[in-house]
Structures are given as structure tokens and as C-alpha cells.
Fold this protein.
Amino acid sequence: IYETSDKNLLIQHFKDDATAFNNQKKASIEGKGVLNNRISEHILTSLSHCGIKTHFIKRINMREQIIKKAEIFPIEFIVRNIATGSLTKRLGITEGTQLDQPLLEYCYKNDDLGDPLISKEHIFNFGWATKEEIKIIDKMTKRINDFLIGLFRGVGIKLIDFKIEFGKAWNKEKGETEIVLADEISPDTCRLWDLKTEKKMDKDRFRKDLGNIIEGYQEVARRLGIM
Ligand code: 5GP
């Protein structure tokens, strides 16, 4: 993230660096940043067309976009449609179980602690967001999930789960701050499986050493009509 001459705007630069397991696994995946920049632009723009406020302003080159400066809530909002990953490990739920309804989880954004799972009570108790803010974010998160399920299903991809972040940004027209979807939505932050074969097209290819990482990301971009 870089500052600009406008105090309310930032430049978000997408690197090729990949990390997993709380930075224990690191690599550089050539071309990943370029793909994530394009994919996140496409998804956030589509979301804004259906009324979700986001930090995204415009993409300025292959690796960078202008975003609104936002005060990020120290919370990762995780939505799950199918059980996998840490949910199956934590609770012994069978891998691949279709959840009756989307499951929303909150994690405290803190690398030193390994982004631990928290409850709403933790959020309110420690002042990480207010009840009113979480009510708004929960509603936005459900709408984002509904929209993304449809967007990906239309191109033969199952949205298994994803992580999103929110912040408070200045709205110039309204003259007040508002809650916006921030960070990025890309194969780095979602689990995306082919609808028919269940082939993984996301960061799990890196986490699990499945190979062909960039090919997976390219396939997502190609199906979304970006490439
Ligand atoms: P899990 O909790 O099963 O490891 O992850 C659930 C979902 O959230 C997955 O789609 C995963 O990619 C995403 N996710 C969770 N934590 C992080 C994180 O710290 N960084 C990124 N990029 N994605 C995350």
C-alpha cells in the first residue's frame, strides 16, 4: 500500500509473493499479482454495480489500483458454503459437507497469534467494531456471498469459502465515513473448485503443493472473461 497526494486515496500494489500457514511457507509466483489485480478489480466492480460499497476506485496499471483509504477493522470475515480447511480440522466435520446455510466466522487479524477465531462478544468487548457496524457488515457479507456464488457458478466454479475485510472510508459526497469492502477478492482469498471435477483453482494449490498454481488463477480469470 502506498500513499498518494490525496490523503483519502491510496495505491494498492499486487505482489507475486505468496505466504501460507502464518508466513511459515513463502514463495514468489510469477504473474500472480497481475492476475489478482485484474480478478479483484472485476469482482469488486461487479459487487459495486449491485450496491455493495467498496474501497476500489480504478486500476491504473498491471499491478496497481487506486483505492479509498480505509480504517480497517482488525477482523477477518470468513464465509463458508462447504466445509473444508480449518473448519474440518477444528470441529472434525467431514471434508466437503454442504452447509445448510452459509457459515460466518470472525477471526482476529493478528499474525503473532495466528489470526484466532473469535466471537462477536470478543469484538464488542475489545471495541474492535460496534454492534451497529457488525450488523451492517454481516448483512453486506451475506449479500456478497450470494452474489459471488452466482457469479462463479455462472462460469462453472463452486465458491467453497472466502475471507473478506472491511474498513471505514470517507465518502466525499455524503461528507461522512461509511463501511466499505476493502482488501481484495481473488484466488488468494477464496477457495474455488471446478463445478464438475472439483479441481482446485485457488491458493490451496500453493498451500498443498499441488503445482500449476498460476494455471489455476489464469483459468479463473479466463472464465470470468478477463483474459
Ligand atoms: P481456512 O480458515 O479454512 O484456512 O480459510 C477459510 C477461507 O478464508 C479460505 O478461502 C482462505 O483462503 C481464506 N483465508 C483465511 N485466512 C486467510 C488469510 O490470512 N489470508 C488469505 N489470503 N486468505 C485467508
Q: What stands out?
A: Residues 67 and 140 are 19 Å apart (CA to CA). The mean pLDDT is 98. Helices lie at 32-49, 85-91, 120-125, 131-153, 204-207, 213-223.
